[in-house]
Amino acid sequence: MKIITSIFDLNKEIKDYKNIGFVPTMGGIHAGHISLIKASQNKKSKTIVSIFVNPTQFNKGDDFKKYPRNIQKDIAILKKLNVEYLFTPNTEDIYKFKAKKFNLKRKDKILCAKFRVGHFEGVLNVMNRLMTIIKSKDLYMGEKDYQQLYLIKKFLSKKFKARINSCPTIRINNKIALSTRNKLLKKRSINKASEIALFLKKIKYKSKLQGSKLAFNLPDYKKELEKKYNIKIDYLEFRDEKNLKLSNFKNKYRLFVAYNIDSVRLIDNY
Ligand code: AMP
Known about the structure:
single chain; 9 strands; Rossmann fold
């Protein structure tokens, strides 16, 4: 595996390759990331994984500082997977060239965009920069961060004529979704989060039978969960997969959740 830090070196290295699979990450490589890498490798693409903890997408400085990092362990995992390239740029390089700024419209200011003001503007900004540098036609991203996937498809896939390949959420024992942030949780909170995942899966299942009637009860479920697990839920909403509008249960939909536990913010969808 070649580890490349400078944009210049990366361009020199990949300029002759047509089918490159790009897996953008913030590191702390886990089975969720690995599933994206395998999806890229299954397409017989050369794979570039990037590890860049992007400061502009964090609303709180503290959250950025606390974000788990372990580059040596990541390198060992990626080498074992036979990834061809690891790109680990520094912040100055990524932000030194001029690039378009993105603003969300009112209708996009829902779910995490409502609760983490400026977060997705930061995500779109950095993804625009990374896609400008790497020019890959195939990106691999996880459904775990469904709104991110949706916004990148909406704002960037046409501009770069790139396919955003969405990959299913990888969970521990079918319950809590893998996430680098889980490393910040106490064992007790991991157990709580697993129970919460199971509960929400059941609600999703019930909703298939009861539809809008159940949606009506969501505020009660929200209160019940907050009380039982001592968590603060930002949102718990059924929304359509295609356009993230509030679901009327006629089209494919998901149950979206974000909550804080141990001062760590977790998101998921079912
Ligand atoms: P992150 O390093 O958290 O920014 O995530 C990098 C990519 O991995 C994003 O496309 C995420 O959606 C994806 N990802 C993170 N966790 C999971 C998971 N549990 N299952 C599948 N994909 C994931």
